[in-house]
Structure formats: C-alpha cells, structure tokens
Fold:
Amino acid sequence: MIVGFLAGCGGADDPAPTAAPLTVVADDRSDVPIAGLPAEWRDRFLLGDALFDQTNGEAGGLGPLFIRSSCGACHALDSRGPGFVEKFPATTGVELPYGVTRRPFATAGAKTPIETPPGVAATVRLPPPVFGRGYVEAIEESEILRVEAEQAARTDGIRGRAHRLTYASELSADPLFSTLTKGASAIGRFGLKARVPTLDDFAADAYQGDMGLTSPLRPTELPNPDGLTDDDKPGVDLSLETISEVAAYMRLLAIPKRPAPDARGAALFAQADCAVCHVPTLRTRADWPVPAQAGIDAPVYTDLLLHDMGDGLADGVTDLAAGPRDWKTPPLMGLRLQRALLHDGRAKTVEDAIAAHDSEGSEARGSAQKFRALSGDDRAALLTFVSSL
Ligand code: HEC
Ligand code: HEC
Structure:
C-alpha cells in the first residue's frame, strides 16, 4: 500500500503542493510505525521497540566494555541523544591499539576502560535519528549510482561518492531484507560516514560496539586493554531474532509527519543547490517487502553520498574509505524535533548548519554562498521550509 500524500489533507490555508510531494507517514512525533501495517509487521514493530529501549545488564552479556546499555539511551524517542560517542582523531605519535572509540565503562570482570589518550582531543559524534530509515534502506542501489554519476558531470565542485565497502558482519539477520554475508561488496547508507549498508548490520555493530553484546552477526568481543574475550554470559550474547526484530523496528518507523509542502521554500531549496545533495526523493525497490515502502519516491532529502565538507567540519577520523573531511549527506527528517544539528551538534539552528557548509575545500561552499546571497525574505522562506521537513 502506498501511503497517502499530504496534498489536500491539510487545512484551507495550506499552500499548494510542490512537484515533489512530501509523503505523510506519521503522527507529529517520532516513535510511531508507518500507517496501515499488517498485524504481523505491527507485532514485529512492538517487539523491536521493547528491545530497542531495553536496558541490558551483565547477565545478558553487557561488557566487558560499554558506552551505554540500551539503544534508547542514545536514541531517545528514536532521535538524537542524550548519549553520544567520542572518537579519537589521528594524532602524530599516538598509537591506538584498542581502536578510535572511547568506551568509558568497564564491567563483567574488566577493569580498564578505553579512555582518551593523553595529547588527543576526542571528537563527538551525536547519534542521528533512526526513524524513517526503512525508506533509506529500501532505496534502489541504481538510484544512488545515478545521482553519483549526475554529480560527477557537474562543474561546480559537487561530486559525492557512494561509499563502496565490504560487508563486515558474518551474515544478515533477516533474509527478507538482505542476504549479504561477510566480504560481499556493498554500498554504505548508515552511519555519519555511511560505513554500514543495512539495518541488520547496524544493529549488530551497535550492540557489539556500544554495549559489548555479541550476536551471530558479530560474534567476538572487541579488543580491550584487559585482553578479555568474553563476559559474564559465556559465548554469543544475542540471538539472530533480537538483531532481526530491532532492525525491523527501525525499518518500520515512520518519517515524522510533515506539514503541507511550501512551494516557494522548496523552489528556493533547489535554487540554492541544497537539493543537489539533499535530494528530495529517491525511488525505492519495487520488490521491497514492506508494501508501504515499495516502489515509491521516498522523501528522504539525501543522496546517501559522501561529500568533502572541508576543513571546518573535519573530525580527523577515517571510517573505511571515508576520510576526515567526508560526511554522508544526512537525511533531512524530523529536524524540528532536534535541538542540535550536524555530526557533533555544533549548530543550534538551520542557519548555523548552513553557515558550517561554507569552509575551505567544502563541496557545499557554493551552495552556502548562494543561500547567503538570497534576499532576507527568501532566506527566511528557505529556513522555514527546511525546518518543516
Ligand atoms: C553510545 C550511544 C549509542 C548507542 C548505545 C547506540 N547508538 Fe546508534 N548511533 C550512535 C551514533 C554516535 C551514531 C553515528 C555513528 C557513526 O556514524 O559513527 C549512531 C548511528 C546509528 C544508526 C545509523 C543511522 C543513519 O541513518 O545513519 C542506526 C541505524 C543506529 N545508530 C541504531 C542503533 C541501535 C539499533 C542501537 C542499539 C542496538 C544503537 N544504535 C545504540 C550512538 C549510539
Ligand atoms: C555538497 C553537498 C551538500 C549541499 C550542497 C548542502 N548540504 Fe547540507 N549537508 C551536507 C552534509 C554532508 C551534511 C553533514 C555535515 C556534518 O554533519 O558535519 C549536511 C548537513 C546539513 C544539515 C544538518 C542536518 C542534521 O541532521 O544535522 C542541514 C539542516 C543542511 N545540511 C541543510 C542544507 C541546506 C539548507 C543547504 C542549501 C543551502 C545544504 N544543506 C546544502 C551536504 C550538503
């Protein structure tokens, strides 16, 4: 079933819809499933929701090291924070034998957390929201490559790259959605630098990296200073079903409801080249198993490509083939539910976020400058439009 378009559903004052209609997929808040789910999907959503917010303890395999003990601790209401992650940028002369991520809590026999080494300034990564991610996962791979090719033909410096990588988990959790196994080539879609291709893979990666909970997808504990290879729960901690249900939950989360699209704001968004990277809609797979997400123009406002965002946004950290200045265009969804924007939350307003696009070497420099050159009225209309997404 294709979910309804907003056009015509709003009040009498609603402006006319634009060429790229915004799909109404939720109530005006997060933590809601997409409308009209069959009962079986609805049950999976509820089970996954409970697992997502469940606080995990030592008996369940928490540790040896962890950052937070539930997904919800960092993605409250499926959104951004309050928990977060810190990374260590490459610093000359500093070795990082236990990786680039701070893991501040030790339990289950561990004594030594992974702390920021002396002489290193850790950088913050705020969690992106997880709502609407089923639409992102459903997008045709050929769409991502089409947009990549279109950008490669541009002459203004915008030239995003798909993050080509090899699948890092042993297997996928739910064969309905993905059958990738370790070493297969894939294109990354999730994570701030698009280092993960599927929601199964992300759930398993987050359990392992953020909580020390192993699963059939990620069966080993990460290296830690005490050299521990297990915790209080012997062997693999989680079942395949847990990964599968948590991934299903994220897949079935709606995009927070958007007001009627404002034609003028949308036109200005395109005029300032925002829409080159924040592509309003991308086509999803016709054979996607969730009918509401299959074969539609998903209103994601991203190209899922990596862009060189210049020195100003660089974090000194490399994720696979994504360098320190590279970031994936974030989907613009539910922005009004967020109090902090950009990968580290440094921007408090959309205008601040746009200003940060304009730094030495940034592909988005010209776009940010086009925004600045607009009249005050037009700038306000564009900001209102973006804040409504
Ligand atoms: C300690 C905080 C923390 C915890 C706990 C956590 N996350 Fe995250 N999450 C983050 C951060 C930070 C990112 C961005 C990571 C990056 O790109 O390096 C992220 C990114 C994601 C993304 C990618 C979204 C996108 O569109 O790019 C998904 C999906 C996700 N998390 C799901 C989960 C799930 C499922 C769990 C529980 C198993 C979880 N997270 C637990 C902090 C957390
Ligand atoms: C070259 C591609 C590109 C262009 C052009 C571009 N952006 Fe972005 N945008 C990005 C990337 C990449 C990020 C993430 C940067 C980061 O987190 O450090 C981003 C982040 C954002 C954010 C913060 C989103 C969040 O969830 O934190 C907003 C808002 C935004 N852009 C709006 C705009 C607007 C408005 C324009 C046009 C004036 C624009 N962008 C032009 C690539 C682009």
Q: What stands out?
A: Residues 1-27 have pLDDT under 50 and may be disordered. The chain is about 25% helix and 5% strand. Residues 158, 272-274, 276-278, 307, 309, 313, 327, 329-330, 341-343, 350, 353-354, 357, 363-364, 367-368, 371, 386 surround heme C (ligand 2) (CB under 6 Å). The longest strand covers residues 163-166.
